[in-house]
Amino acid sequence: MPVQYYIFLSIALFCIGVMGVLMRRNAIIIFMCIELMLNAVNLLLVAFSKMWVDAGRIDADAAQLFVFFVMVVAAAEVSVGLAIIVMMYRNTHSVDINILSRLKN
Amino acid sequence: MIHLVWLVPFLPLLGFLINGLGRKYLPKSLTGVVGSGSVLAAFVISLLIFFEVRQPGFTPQVVTLFDFINVGSLHIPFAFQVDQLSALFLLIITGVGSLIHIYSTSYMHEESNEGFARYFAYLNLFVFSMLILVLGANYVMMFIGWEGVGLCSYLLIGFWFRNINFNKAANKAFIMNRIGDLGFLLGIFLMIQQFGSVTFSEVFEKVPALGEGSIILFAIAMLLFVGAMGKSAQVPLYTWLPDAMAGPTPVSALIHAATMVTAGIYMVARSNVLYSLAPYIQAIIAIVGVVTALLAASIALKQNDIKKVLAYSTVSQLGYMFLALGTGAYTAAVFHVMTHAFFKALLFLGSGSVIHAMGGEQDIRKMGGLKKWMPVTNITFLIGCLAIAGIPGLSGFFSKDEILANAFGYNKVIYALALIGALMTAFYMFRLYYITFSGKFRGTHEQEHHLHESPAAITLPLIILAVLSVIGGYVGLPEVFGAPHLLHEYLSPVLVSEHPHHLDHTLEWGLMGLSTVLVIVMIFIARGKFSRYEDTGAENTGIAKVLENKWYVDELYDAIIVKPLLVLSRFFRDGIERSGIDALVNGVGRGVKWGGGRIRLLQNGQVGFYIFAMVIGMIVLFVISLFL
Amino acid sequence: MLTVLLILIPLITGLITFGLKGAGAKALSLLSSFATLVIAVIAWQQAATAPETLQFVAEWIPQLGSQFNVGLDGMGAMLCLLTAVSFPLIFITVYGREYDRPGAFYGLLLLSQAGLIGVFTAYDALLFYVFWELALIPVYFLCSMWGGERAIPVTFKFFVYTFAGSLLMLTGIIYIYTQTPEHSFSWTAFTALQPGSTEQSWLFWLFFVAFAIKMPVFPFHTWQPDTYEQSPTPVTMVLSGIMVKMGLFGVIRWLLPVLPQGVYIWQEAAIVLSVIGIIYASCIAIVQTDLKRLIAYSSIAHIGLMSAAIFANNEQSMQGVQVQMFNHGINIIGLWMIVEVIQNRLNIKNMQEMGGIATHAPKLAIALVIVSLANIALPLTNGFIGEFLMFSGLFQYNAWFAAIAAVAIILAAVYMLNMLQKVIFGEANALTSTTADLKTGELLAISVVIVIIFVLGVYPKPLLELVDSTTAMVNAAAWVK
């Protein structure tokens, strides 16, 4: 399959993620959208890696290592983020992020 | 003896230090001895120097003490110059000075111990400064003395410092003098620029190279003359001198009649080489002199304060001296300085004796008939009046006649004006004399009870000065008398560029006779009007009121100088400083704060907004990197 | 080595003083200031005979090409001497006073002394800048913590103002540094560089504004009256007596030789600003009712004259400026001493409420009269020598400027004499009739000032000869027209 297909899919995923983060107020949905963006990038990394390997650059498969890094970091981030969201829910009984703007005062 | 000349100013300085530092501990008698003794000792040394200088063939000698200012090619040594002119002034200053010091021991005796010592310290400091002024071998030294005497004058006018009006008079004197000093200082700078030196001998050597009528020469001469106007109370800087009468009377006699105010004449006479090459400036000097003489004499006609009359008379006489300088008759000016020192000091000390007897009263309308109680003061005062009026045979006659004769040779109009001034002088002096000493006593009963002749420490200086006022004129007999003009011969090595106007002998006799007859007429008019003076208390009107109010010159200066300066200063303070520059500076601070407040609003705490801004930013960067 | 000692003694004792309490802090700071004075006198003697022995160089930040390079020329030695003389006088004057947290108060004063001496000795631009700020920062804390009721906003303004100037200067220093071939901050490298005239023209302003704020020259002066008014008097003494000399010193050491063409281009503008400042400040001084502000404005006028004389840059004016830097320092410290005493006794600043002090405190009155007269440059006081030479030098440069500036000698007489009249003469009122005369310590300090006033007024030769070499250096560096 030509690499363009992957690119288009990943752009679509990324844009959905961005729009979700921008539009939604529910913290959990925003989180999922962030995951969506990360995975869009992961998909691209894998696709380009495959492309370069097919083109004869043996060492290019090292790029797939980054995907694991991203996954690990995302997992860590989710654990911290979910913890914050849980605390937030306990305090405010809501997961609406705009309520948190009260912090500024 | 000449190399010991530094002792002459040093002794009064020593007196100043002893009296100033020991004012708490010294008894009055010791203070008086130190104060008078130091000046008297200086007089003795001056006398010895004078006899040395008198020898024919004496050349000016410079005694350098140390380098004062040494910058590159500019050398200003702390040096004294002894020549005929400075030796003569030394004699006048220390001689009259000693008499006045002795007089003061009695006059100021009612002061507290500390005040008495302070007074003598100031007086000694004054003598020191004045001696520096006349002894200095360069213009900077002269300027040191020049400002020094101004300071002492300030301190002594404001001697009774609890009276705020006296302080104001002192301030006025100092500030007006400083206006003159500014001119003097600029003149010195111009000299440094042109000649690279301020030493008399070097400057006078280089002056002729500039050529007669050079603009720079005019500027130097004019600037120095501005200094002289301030110090010697000439129009338009004369108004401080009458106010200076706030000081103790002996101070008025010493500083504001005999010595300090003649510093301007000394300066111009000293720079005669320079002035003779600047004829326009000489004309200005002559005109300023005659205008001052007339203006001050006219004011003196209507003053009722005994010291004010004498003060205006001093201003007027100084005007005559400048007239003489302006006509090129330097010797006549110095001659008049000398005779004036005698008779004006005499008059002031006499008035002090009167004020002392009257318990501090200075208004002549409240006096009268004093000759009954104060015979010595009466006689000596009368001699002083006769001398200043110019009665033949007394000192004032000879010096004034010489000035008038020169004025006649210079310009007939100026002569006429000067003659009118001389007649006014005779009139107001005898008005003063008759109102004070003859008629009935008009003071309170208590004052009458206290009237007495003053003690010997006061009358002795009066008698000595009276004698000098009589005989002082014989050192400068007019040419027509056939006798040599001793003073002229004595001073000729210094006043090299003198060119007196020689008149035809018959003409000179005629002028002399004319002025004498007119003066005697004026005296008789004054006698007729005032010998039985009664104080009616009537207000003056018309021109008399204008004269009584001194032509409203003080008010005029207030309106055109003092007030605008204050308005300008307030405008600077409130208009420019506070609401201009400082507001601008604070405005920058306030602007930053305001801008910060506006930008802060972007930080609204909406996470969505932040992310949105971030995404927009990324897109913009993306677009830029793609298309640019 | 002496030069380093001059900086180290106040620096180290200053740091120690922070830990001390009460009398200990006072005693140590006094002791330290005397030690500095002794060293400064020795250094002064050496500066006259063998200035090269006072040079000290050590590696500092070799990566940047910056060295710890200190030394003393005539002017430096003179200003160090001024600093070293002033601090003991200040400490003696306030010895009887109690301040909160004396350890910190005296410690900060000593630190600023170290900074000041550093500024006057530094021959490395970066080092100069560091000391420049080191002198400033303690003063900021001193003003804001021990100052008057408006101290915080006023010191804030003062700090931001001077700091803004410093940053401009830093920019200029860094620019010149990058241009030097061997990337060096040393004074020799800076003076050897000589950038093109366009560069010099704008670089001039970076340096000039920094120095002009410090001096201060019109129209950069508005921080000064407020700060002088609000600071505790010992700090005002440091500020007006010594710290303003940093600006003048900076111009002579770092501006004239480094950017002679820039100076030549803007000379006239700088002089015009200075002359305007002289008249302007003198006029404002006339209508002041606050004693401290009056002295502040009189100081602006005096500094304006010094600045004008520096830019006239001829032999007489330069000698005059340097002599006057010393003498103005002494005189104004003397004035502040007396103000401090008056404040201490009466606790008022408004001159309208004073009067009659001469009756009850004659020594105080005499001291004030003498110092005031020195301040209006009466001959035979030290103020005369400098002003005479400066006016004369300015006159050689341009007679009209000199004539206008010299009007200030009349105005100075007006405001100083009015001040005397209001403060010490006249009848005493209920408040002033309680004025106690000078106490021993105060009398001692003021007597020293008065002795210096007369000695240098009559015999200025040692001072003139000391600064001779600097004048020669600066005049030679001046761009030949």
Task: Give short descriptive properties of this protein.
heterotrimer, B: 628 residues, mainly alpha, two-stranded antiparallel sheet, 2 strands, C: 481 residues
What does this 3D model show about the protein?
The complex is a heterotrimer of chains A (105), B (628) and C (481). Chain A is mainly alpha-helical and 105 residues long. Chain A has helices at residues 3-23, 27-54, 63-92. In chain A, helix 1 (3-23) packs antiparallel against helix 2. Chain A starts with a helix and ends in a 13-residue tail after the last helix. With 628 residues, chain B is mainly alpha-helical. Chain B folds into 3 domains: 1-137, no CATH class; 138-496 and 503-537, no CATH class; 579-627. Chain B has helices spanning 7-21, 28-54, 84-107, 113-135, 139-157, 164-195, 200-210, 215-231, 240-243, 249-258, 263-270, 272-276, 279-300, 306-326, 330-357, 375-389, 395-410, 412-437, 445-450, 456-471, 486-491, 505-530, 542-548, 553-600, 607-627, and strands at 61-71, 74-82. A two-stranded antiparallel sheet of chain B has the order 1-2. In chain B, strand 1 (61-71) and strand 2 (74-82) form a beta hairpin. In chain B, helix 5 (139-157) runs antiparallel to helix 6, helix 13 (279-300) runs antiparallel to helix 14 (306-326) and helix 14 packs antiparallel against helix 15. The radius of gyration of chain B is 31 Å and the shape is globular. Chain C has helices at 2-18, 22-49, 74-93, 102-121, 125-146, 151-179, 187-193, 197-214, 223-230, 233-255, 260-286, 291-312, 315-346, 357-360, 362-375, 382-397, 399-423, 440-458, 461-466, 468-477, and strands at residues 56-61, 66-70. Chain C is mainly alpha-helical and 481 residues long. Chain C has one domain. The relative contact order of chain C is 0.10. Chain C is built from 20 helices and 2 strands. In chain C, helix 6 (151-179) packs across helix 9 (223-230) and helix 13 runs antiparallel to helix 15. At the A-B interface, helix 1 of A face helix 25 of B. Chain C: It holds the Pfam family Proton_antipo_M. Chain C: One of its GO terms (molecular function) is ubiquinone binding. Chain C: Residues 122-408 form the NADH:quinone oxidoreductase/Mrp antiporter transmembrane domain. Chain C: One of its GO terms (cellular component) is endomembrane system. Chain C: Its main location: membrane.
